[in-house]
Amino acid sequence: MPPRLLLSIRSALRSPATFAFLPPFLLPCLNPSTTHRHASILSSLSDNPLAYHKKIRRGRGPSSGKGKTSGRGHKGQKQHGKVPRGFQGGQTPLEIVHGTRGFVNVFSVDMQPLNLSRIQSWIDQGRIDPSRPITIKELSDSNCVGKIKDGVKLLADGAQELRTPINIIISRASKSAIAAVEKIGGSVMTRFYTPFAIQRILRGTTDPINSLRSERIMMEEQEEDENDRNEDDDNENVDALRDSGSQALVGDATATSEAGTIASAVAAVQPRRFGFRHRLPDPTSRKDIEYYRDPIHRGYLSHLVTEGQTPSLFFKIPSAGKGVVGKRAAAKKALEENRIW
Questions:
Q1: pLDDT digits over 104-160, tens only?
Q2: Phi and psi at residue 41, in whole multiples of 5°?
């Protein structure tokens, strides 16, 4: 049996003269206390849990549940081979004999129904606060509606049970439901939502009420009210300073009040504009725009319809083209007067 290499090296190291003749590749073996760990993680690499599915091993015994016939059953074409899609045993397919009927409406929307009786029941249980605006987020958080896909539609089932005035912002509402809510002093506003916007609203990253069009109107109204109140306060402060005879402080007080007005306006606008991560979209298709421009539906874009107009974007009011016709007639008349031949 040949001697061990490590023992022979140790015996050779007892004399310092033999250390110079030791090969360099044997130097790591001189210190037995140092251990070298050659570890590899290649054998333990794996994907995240539930990121892959384990392959089903068929025909490996009855205990696996897929043994013997391997889940194909007994005999027949489905066990021995594959069946083409739509194959009906060789007969003429029924869709060829009788033809196809009906169609799939690609423009249809899946609205979650919500009845007035359910809202009143949730209010009685204390699960919804009627003093605050009711949006789809409050309805989803209180489990008043289930999974919301394209929106929520308010229906008038149980209208006689509704006795609490509510302020509800919802996707759509029937005419009878709007009449029942407004009869007891409540209000209904229909507002456009997309499926992605609904998901963000339920996560709390999007404002469920204000968008670019609606927010601009609300912002202007709030700024006008704030400016009116600040102007009244400024006038009272200036009159008080003048009465006291301190004219030197009038300019400073006016500048301070103007700075306070600007700061209050910015503070009023900032929570609505920067309080959410995503912006609430507005409708882009003509069908949706016309629906939410209609005052009958209590659409949030009904303020864009001026007097004499209709919610439709296709038809114009009769007086819209009078100016153009008048200019054309005047130009034609001037051309006839200047004509030589």
A1: 998 899 999 999 999 999 999 999 999 999 999 999 999 999 999 999 999 999 999
A2: -100, 0
| Cα–Cα distances in angstroms (integers) from residue 89 to residues 65, 72, 94, 95, 96, in the given order | 29, 18, 12, 14, 15
Distance in angstroms (rounded) separating the CA atoms of residues 165 and 2 = 101
- Alpha-carbon distance of 158 to 181, in angstroms, equals 11
Element (H, E) at 231: helix 212-244
pTM across the whole model: 0.56
Region of residue 74 (phi > 0: left; psi between -120 and 50: alpha; otherwise: beta): beta
Tell me the three state secondary structure of residue 152: strand
SS3 assignment, position 319: helix
CA distance 153 to 171: 6
Report how far residue 158's alpha carbon sits from residue 118's, in angstroms, rounded to the nearest whole number: 8
Cα angle 263-265-270, degrees, rounded to a multiple of 5:
95
Which residue do the tokens 């060789």 mark?
90
